[in-house]
């Protein structure tokens, strides 16, 4: 099993440590457990197998059922089983912000490059799409980077919410701008104030 250990969030014993696995490399025959979980930022919808989270979405602008459908379409050959108990340890670790969690990330070489870069954005910090492009050595690939960020299957843990617009605006988020704002506030990120409409 090929694994890449990566650190997410705070360093040291009080942080969340993320291990990224690319196994299995295919969803054919996979049995994915799924479940919904309450959280301070909204209902979490999780999918996973063999101790690894494959997908994590947040019901903000969508119902939990629509979030599940949105995530599950990424693995059309997997069979879904309603079994939140199997995912509870990973979700509990995420919510406490302490311990180890494994995520399965499989994508193109470019997607993996972007997702790994997301994992290196420290807790409470933000980066612009342009800054992320510079960081991965692809300064002209802004549109492709935006697409890859939006295709991240394991939201919150792979912190795509920490990518904002260059001008200081919060930017879009697959699960809704209110969810992104709640995540950033929870992490103590300094968010530029929203402009006041002209009267």
TrEMBL record:
Keywords: DNA damage, DNA repair, Methyltransferase, Transferase. Its EC number is 2.1.1.63. One of its GO terms (molecular function) is methylated-DNA-[protein]-cysteine S-methyltransferase activity. The keyword DNA repair applies. Residues 109-189 form the Methylated-DNA-[protein]-cysteine S-methyltransferase DNA binding domain. It catalyses: a 6-O-methyl-2'-deoxyguanosine in DNA + L-cysteinyl-[protein] = S-methyl-L-cysteinyl-[protein] + a 2'-deoxyguanosine in DNA; a 4-O-methyl-thymidine in DNA + L-cysteinyl-[protein] = a thymidine in DNA + S-methyl-L-cysteinyl-[protein]. The keyword Ion transport does not apply. GO terms for biological process: DNA repair; methylation. Pfam families: DNA_binding_1. PANTHER family: METHYLATED-DNA--PROTEIN-CYSTEINE METHYLTRANSFERASE. NCBIfam families: ogt (TIGR00589). Belongs to the MGMT family. This is methylated-DNA--[protein]-cysteine S-methyltransferase. The lineage of its organism: Bacteria, Pseudomonadati, Pseudomonadota, Alphaproteobacteria, Rhodobacterales.
């Amino acid at each position: 099993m090929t694994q890449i250990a990566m650190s997410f969030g705070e360093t040291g014993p009080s942080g969340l440590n993320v291990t990224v696995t690319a196994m299995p490399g295919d969803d054919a025959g996979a049995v994915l457990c799924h479940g919904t979980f309450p959280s301070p930022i909204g209902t979490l919808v999780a999918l996973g197998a063999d101790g690894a989270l494959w997908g994590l979405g947040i019901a903000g602008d969508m119902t939990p059922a629509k979030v599940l459908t949105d995530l599950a379409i990424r693995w059309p050959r997997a069979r879904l089983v309603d079994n939140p108990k199997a995912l509870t340890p990973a979700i509990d670790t995420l919510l406490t912000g302490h311990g180890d969690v494994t995520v399965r990330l499989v994508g193109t070489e470019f997607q993996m490059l972007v997702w790994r870069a997301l994992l290196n954005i420290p807790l409470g910090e933000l980066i612009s799409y342009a800054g992320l492009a510079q960081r991965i050595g692809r300064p002209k690939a802004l549109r492709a980077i935006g697409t890859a960020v939006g295709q991240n299957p394991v939201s919150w843990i792979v912190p795509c919410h920490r990518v904002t617009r260059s001008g200081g605006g919060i930017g879009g988020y697959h699960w809704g701008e209110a969810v992104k704002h709640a995540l950033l506030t929870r992490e103590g990120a300094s968010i530029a104030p929203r402009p006041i409409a002209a009267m």
